[in-house]
Structures are given as C-alpha cells and as structure tokens.
Amino acid sequence: MAIGFSLYALVILFVFNSLTHSLCTKTKMSNEKQTRVFRTINVLITILLISSYVEVLNTL
Predict the structure, then answer these.
(1) Dihedral angle at the C-alpha atoms of 8, 42, 15, 10, nearest 10 degrees?
(2) Helix, strand or coil for residue 1?
(3) Which regions span the lipid bilayer (predicted)?
C-alpha cells in the first residue's frame, strides 16, 4: 500500500507543479517570487498527502 500511495503522491506533486508553472508563466512572475510560490505549494501539498496517508492507515 505504501508503494501505491507513494506513486499517487508523486503524480499529485507533478500535476500541482505543472499547474504552478503554468500560473507563474501566465502571470510573468519574477524568479525570486516563483521559488517562494513553488516552495509554499510543495510544502502544503506534502503536508496534505502525509495527513491523508496517516488517516488511511488509521482506518485500516
């Protein structure tokens, strides 16, 4: 199950990074601001994925 969830998490992170890149390109953000946006979104998505994994483990 951990391997399956890890693959799912990688796909989710890839999708959100692609969407974030599109947002940064469309709004023509500076490189400094882009790194902060990417870092913030990646940290938040990682926290969300970890908490959902823990919740799934608790239900089993």
Answers:
(1) -30
(2) coil
(3) 6-25, 37-54
Distance of CA 60 to the CA centre of its chain: 25
In this predicted structure, what is the pLDDT of residue 1?
82
Domain ranges of the chain: 1-59
pLDDT in tens, the chain (60 residues): 889 999 999 999 999 999 999 999 999 999 999 999 999 999 999 999 999 999 999 988
Of 38, 43, 41, give the one whose Cα is nearest residue 24.
Answer: 38
Spatial CB neighbours of 34, under 8 Å, sequence gap ≥ 6: 24
